[in-house]
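Methods — Computational structure assignment.
A single polypeptide chain was analysed. Its primary sequence is given first, followed by the predicted tertiary structure written as structure tokens.
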Amino acid sequence: MAGLFGGQRGSDPTDAAQDVMYEAWEATGRSKRIALARKALKVSPLCADAYVLLAEEEAGSVEEVLDYYQKGLIVSAKMNDIDPQAWLADILARIAAHPAHRIDDLLPWNWRSAKLRTQPAAA
């Protein structure tokens, strides 16, 4: 799957961890996927996809699922250079009234630009 996105990427640990996750998503066995997700987190604890896979495949309780997803959200915000607490507080306050067709505006990689659009232009 990594080949679909231009093959091997840079030597950054997060890129390497993501490459491990491409392999994990394609693995057929549950235990293999879990082992690869754990390997990705050893390579880089900033691999949000690993937390998602562990939430879906390894968690044994609702609390564990929520913990893994929370870690994934926090890491995703950090990877996009935004304060996780500010982002989560803002989207939770806005999501009920936010148009469904514009939900992408609330994703961490779009949030900053959406937030800036709501600010008045500098004089």
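Note: The two ends are 47 Å apart (CA to CA).
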